[in-house]
């Protein structure tokens, strides 16, 4: 029985683990001082290389043969490329926390679109958790930053656009067969994004130093190779609504990292916001546990 509970929580743990690593992305963006297309290109290129190496070592090459199913993965890669280009530029223009809050308007879109696109019902707990998490995000960045006169409209519009594309990406992943989520989908998405962003990144490649290349390699391996694979494995057992809301934890981790390493400041808003975000995440986990119990009794 205890073992079953551990298996039940494992997919949620995989998503939270992914959020922890993803939260470091803002550090790479702010420290590298490179155009977003360069950062995105190398992130997914190195992610693709490490994933391909893993496939070769584990002799899972046959898993990449997916006749008739490659088109949705190519589309997912294109959508995700747009999302990451936009959020990277938004972070550069508005800061780590501000860029991530706009990126995480995605759950709002998912909760509204999932019933239409993947036939998932909107539950009261999903809406409650969404509200808690979004209030937490507002606290993390600080209400004072929402003075219209002080907003960088270009950066904020890019952030909102990244949120919309991210929502479409999550929903599209949920429409893929379960066996494709994980190593296969991540490998294809990395390959597609690398190809699409290379023409944009090519003019700036000569200006990259060996040190920056090493940092980009680390970002690609950790953020894309490890974290995203963990997220996609978790997504096999977690609904699109729950996964998208749990991912609010990423902005909490990002804000903590920014406060520690970029000196963006650790405030009472960050503490209160963090508690709200964690509360929303726990509500989702316990909601899933109760749902599983109800299904077992039926």
UniProtKB/TrEMBL annotation:
Q: Which Pfam families match?
A: EamA
The organism of origin for this protein: Formimonas warabiya
| UniProt keywords, alphabetically | Membrane, Transmembrane, Transmembrane helix
Q: What is this protein called?
A: EamA domain-containing protein
Name the InterPro entries on file: EamA_dom, EmrE-like
Q: Family per UniProt? A: Belongs to the EamA transporter family.
Q: What is the lineage of its organism?
A: Bacteria, Bacillati, Bacillota, Clostridia, Eubacteriales
Using the record's annotation, list all stretches that form the EamA domain. Answer: 15-140, 155-285
Q: Which residues form a coiled coil?
A: none
Residue stretches spanning the membrane: 9-28, 40-58, 70-88, 100-118, 127-144, 156-173, 180-201, 213-233, 245-262, 268-288
| SUPFAM superfamilies, sorted | Multidrug resistance efflux transporter EmrE
- Which PROSITE patterns does its entry note? PROKAR_LIPOPROTEIN
Listed GO cellular component terms?
membrane
């Amino acid at each position: 029985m205890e073992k079953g509970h551990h298996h039940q929580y494992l997919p949620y743990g995989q998503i939270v683990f992914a959020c922890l690593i993803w939260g470091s992305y803002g550090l790479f963006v702010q420290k590298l001082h490179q155009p977003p297309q360069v950062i995105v290109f190398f992130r997914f290129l190195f992610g693709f290389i490490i994933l391909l190496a893993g496939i070769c070592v584990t002799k899972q090459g046959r898993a990449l043969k997916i006749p008739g199913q490659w088109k949705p993965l190519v589309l997912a890669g294109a959508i995700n490329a747009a999302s990451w280009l936009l959020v990277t530029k938004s972070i550069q223009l508005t800061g780590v926390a501000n860029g991530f809050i706009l990126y995480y308007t995605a759950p709002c879109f998912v909760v509204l679109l999932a019933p239409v696109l993947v036939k998932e019902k909107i539950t009261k707990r999903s809406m409650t958790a969404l509200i808690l998490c979004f209030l937490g995000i507002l606290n993390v960045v600080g209400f004072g930053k929402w003075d219209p006169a002080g907003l960088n409209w270009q950066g904020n519009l890019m952030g909102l656009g990244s949120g919309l594309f991210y929502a479409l990406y999550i929903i599209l992943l949920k429409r893929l067969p379960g066996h494709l989520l994980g190593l296969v989908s991540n490998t294809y998405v990395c390959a597609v994004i690398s190809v699409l962003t290379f023409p944009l990144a090519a003019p700036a490649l000569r200006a990259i130093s060996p040190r920056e290349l090493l940092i980009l390699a680390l970002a690609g391996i950790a953020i894309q190779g490890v974290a995203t694979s963990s997220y996609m494995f978790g997504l096999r057992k977690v609904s699109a609504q729950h996964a998208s809301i749990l991912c609010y934890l990423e902005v909490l981790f990002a804000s903590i990292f920014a406060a520690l390493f970029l000196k963006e400041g650790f405030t009472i808003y960050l503490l209160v916001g963090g508690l709200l975000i964690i509360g929303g995440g726990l509500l989702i986990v316990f909601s899933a546990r109760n749902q599983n119990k109800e299904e077992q009794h039926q």
